[in-house]
Amino acid sequence: MSEQFKLKVTSAIEKVPSLPLTALKIVKLANDINSPPKDMLDTIKMDPMITAKVLKLINSSYFGLSQQVTDLRQALVMLGANTVKNIALASALLSTMRSTSSISGGLDQDALWLRSLATACGAKLAAKNAGVPRAQIEEFFLLGLLHDCGRIFCFQMLPQEYMAVLIKAQKEQLPLSEVELSELEMRSPQIGGLLAERWQLPGNIHDAILYHENPLESKEHGREVAIVTVARHLVQSLNLGWNDGLLLPVLQPEVIAKSGIDFERLRGDFSVIRDEVEKAKMFIQR
Description:
CATH class: Mainly Alpha
Oligomer: single chain
Shape: globular
Strand content: under 5%
Radius of gyration: 18 Å
C-alpha cells in the first residue's frame, strides 16, 4: 500500500467515533464467556438509548413474540442471554457506525447496509442448515450484519478512492477484491479488520469481518466465517441489496465443506429470505 494512502486510512479510522462507555462494557462482557447474564443486563440499563433500542428491536416483527416485552429481564427469559447480548451489541455498533460523518460520492450506503442485513438473515438460515446449536443461531445474524463493515467504512470515509475502484471493476468486469488490491493495495476486509481491532470486538466478529472473503484463513473461527461466506454468496446471487453490476465471486467447494452446509437444501431455504429481510429492516433504520 502506498504510504500516502496508508496514512489516509489510518487517519480516517482514527476519526471513527470510539464506542460509548456502555458499548465498550458490552463488548468486554461479550468477550468473556463466563460473565453472568445479570452483568450484561445491568450494563445495558446504564444507557437509556441502547435500552430503548434493544426493547424496540425485541418487540419488532423480526422476533414475532406473542406478547409485548417491557423489561430486559423479561426479554432475557423469553429470548435467552445470548440473543439479548447480540441485540445490544448490534445496537451499539450500528449507532456508532451510523454516526460517522460521510460524503457518499455517489455510493449507495443504504443498499450496502441492506445487503449486510440480507447476509445477516441468510447467515441465520445457513447456521440452522449447518446444525449450529439453537442458542448460538442468533450470533450468526450479528456476524452477517457486521461482516462488510470495512466496505461500509470505505463508502463513508474514502468515497473518492472507492468510487475509482468500483468504476474500474465494473468497466473491466474484474473481481472487486482484485481491483481493491491493485488500486488501494489493501482489501476492504483488511480495513474492516483494523476497525474491529480498534473497537476490540470479539474474535468471531473480528474474523467474520477480516476473513469473509477467505474463511479458510481464519484459524479459530473458520467454520463460523465459512457459514457467513456461503450466506453472503447466496445473497449476492439473488441481487439482494448493493451489487452495482459487479462479478459474483466464486464460492470454493472447500468453503462449503468447511461450513458443514447442505448447499442445495440451503438454496431452497432461501425462498423465504426476502420476507425475513423485510421483518429485520428495523435493525438498519436510522
